Amino acid sequence: xxxxxxxxxxxxxxxxxxxxxxxxxxxxxxxxxxxxxxxxxxxxxxxxxxxxxxxxxxxxxxxxxxxxxxxxxxxxxxxxxxxxxxxxxxxxxxxxxxxxxxxxxxxxxxxxxxxxxxxxxxxxxxxxxxxxxxxxxxxxxxxxxxxxxxxxxxxxxxxxxxxxxxxxxxxxxxxxxxxxxxxxxxxxxxxxx
Length: 193
Prior knowledge:
76% helix; 2 strands; two-stranded antiparallel sheet; mainly alpha; 4 helices
């Protein structure tokens, strides 16, 4: 029985000592894993767990718990301050927008006149754009027509050249030189050629 206790004690102790930077949640998970992985007592539902090791893990988790809670409270306070700042900024922005809206309503006649002038400018710009587009299309059409004529001439020239090539007779087959008597066929003297 002491062997079982020492095995359980050794396994857990090395895992706690190898990683001292484990958080509270990690220590609690190790404790749960230790109980789940403990060896069962014969003929019983009880398990054998190292009391000292489990207590050390739980005490370490409790010791770390206040720091993590303090950090969580600090984060919540920071979040609330951030949201309050954003709410104040939103309220100030809305007040500015309302003031500008009131100012603009008081100058509605100026706005109406400005809209009329803007509409006239837009109409003039649209008319100018239509005119320029039509001119550009006419210019492109003229250039494409000129290229069509040139391409038509080139096509006719190419067609005539191909017809001429087809009309010419194929060249005569090459004549093989006859080897002089006493020599093997296939041997060619450079001077004979």
